[in-house]
Amino acid sequence: MARVPKAGRAGAAAADMAGLDGGTTITMHPRGRFKTDNGVAPAAAAVAGLGIAALPDFLIEEHLQSGALVPVMTRYPPPEGGIYVVRPPGLHPAWKIRVLTELLIERLG
C-alpha cells in the first residue's frame, strides 16, 4: 500500500483510510495538503517522494517492479471493495448494458 497525504476528491477533506488488523477494521486519518481526483497524480507524487498512497495494483505495478515504490503498511491490508452496476429498472436492460455487465463479471467477478 502506498499513500499520498490528503489524496481525495478535489476540494474535499482528506479521505480516511481503512485497513484490517487481523479481523478488526482500523481507520487512519492522513493529514496533508495534496488533493486530486484521479489515481495517476498520487502515484506520481508517491514516486516523487511526497508521501504514501493507497492505490490499485494496476496503477503502480510498473513502479513496484522498478523499485520506485515499495509496499508499506502491509500488516494493514485494505478491506475488500466492490464494483456495482447501476442501471435503469426493468427485467430487460439494453443490449449494451447486458454486455458491459457480463464483461465486468467475467473480468472482475
Strand content: 5-15%
Shape call:
extended
Q: Distance between termini?
A: 22 Å
| Main sheet attributes: strand count, strand direction, barrel closure | 2 strands, antiparallel
Number of helices: 3
How many beta-strand elements? 2
Spell out the helices and strands N to C: EEHHH
Strand numbers in spatial order across the main sheet:
1-2
Rg from alpha-carbon coordinates: 17 Å
How much is the average pLDDT? 79
| Helix proportion range | 25-40%
Low-confidence segments, given as residue ranges, are 1-13
| Helix-and-strand structural type | alpha+beta
Commentary on this structure:
The protein has 3 helices and 2 strands; from the N terminus they run E-E-H-H-H. It is α+β, with helices and mostly antiparallel strands and 109 residues long. It has a domain at 17-79. A two-stranded antiparallel ribbon has the order 1-2. Residues 1-13 have low confidence and may be disordered.
Write a brief structural summary.
The chain is α+β, with helices and mostly antiparallel strands. It has helices spanning 40-47, 57-66, 95-108; strands at 17-21, 24-28.
